[in-house]
Structure prediction request, 274 residues.
Amino acid sequence: MESAVSPPPHPPELPEDARPRWPWWYGPVAFLAGAVSGLLAAGIAWAALGVDDPGESPGAIIVGTLLLDGSLVAVALLFASFVRRPRSWHFGLRRTPFWPAVGWAALGLLTFYVLAAIYSVAVQPDVEQNVAEDLGADESTIGLIAAGFMIICVAPFAEEFFFRGFFYGALRTKFSVAVAAIIDGLLFGLIHFEGGSDGLLIVPPLAMLGVIFCLVYEQTRSLYPVVALHSINNSVAYAVQADGGAVSAVLGALMLVACAVVPRFTRPAPAPVA
Prediction:
């Protein structure tokens, strides 16, 4: 006689409240710990490589950026482990319905470009980011590809893993969506500040972008649409700043494919508890 009880799904669905509730202050403290440890690791690496002035060496900046991004990811995993053994889905690396995710991502991107256009007309900021140049995009073909890989592939994943997957997730245990998104967005904008009074003009639109990333993440409960959004934005910026249209097109397309395919092999987004 067959059982009337259906077997559990594989992998099993988990309620939304099964995600670890990290204390809200884990986010800010982890950011400080990650920044300090990343800078220390970069300093040690530069000393070992005999680099006297890292600002004049694109290779040194790439190494330093990798170590800083890696430190933020590592610290997020470390702090998360204090509550429960970290799982990828705890940080939003989980499957979500494809077309709704595409819709929310497209709405987020359109909203950002409209707000950025309004800000540009109202403020007329005469500021250019020098990240691509600092990473050696203007020095050789290899430099153009390496810088593009850092900006289009590495930065979107590492920054989203920390800022949305962990930092925002920790803030949400205490604050509302709006408050948590604004705090997250402000910090996200400030880390891209390059110095000088004019440099502050670039912070508001990037803070808005950070808030939008949080809202898309909140709606999809998955990090993959947000990583894709981040990569698209960086691809467009890189194509303009470094005249790297071909590199942007190839790397951006690869990231979009990865964000669409990889989730098929990960845990589905847990359904909210009724």
Q: What stands out?
A: Residues 92-265 form one domain. Residues 34 and 75 are 6 Å apart (CA to CA).
